[in-house]
Amino acid sequence: MITPEEIKGILEREIPDSVVEVGDMTGGGDHFQVIVVSPEFEGKRLVQQHQLVYKALGKVLDGDAIHALALRTYTPEAWQGAL
């Protein structure tokens, strides 16, 4: 089982200058909601942004640690507009 803190740590290490929020959606430790804000997403389509997150999580997604992942990605500018 993986914790929200571990997911957050992985993403912050793998995606430069990112701000990450992770929540356990069900309390069961395998359904997570993730918000990632990063300048790395500038100029990338939503699918490309999500691919960067999936790549960063790599082996975690390949195993049984995460059953469901609700993912929202933003550039810093888009995040400011979403607040």
TrEMBL record:
Cited Gene3D superfamilies: BolA-like
Membrane-spanning ranges: none
Family per similarity comment: Belongs to the BolA/IbaG family.
Name the record gives this protein: BolA family transcriptional regulator
The organism's taxonomic lineage, starting at the top: Bacteria, Pseudomonadati, Nitrospinota/Tectimicrobiota group, Candidatus Tectimicrobiota
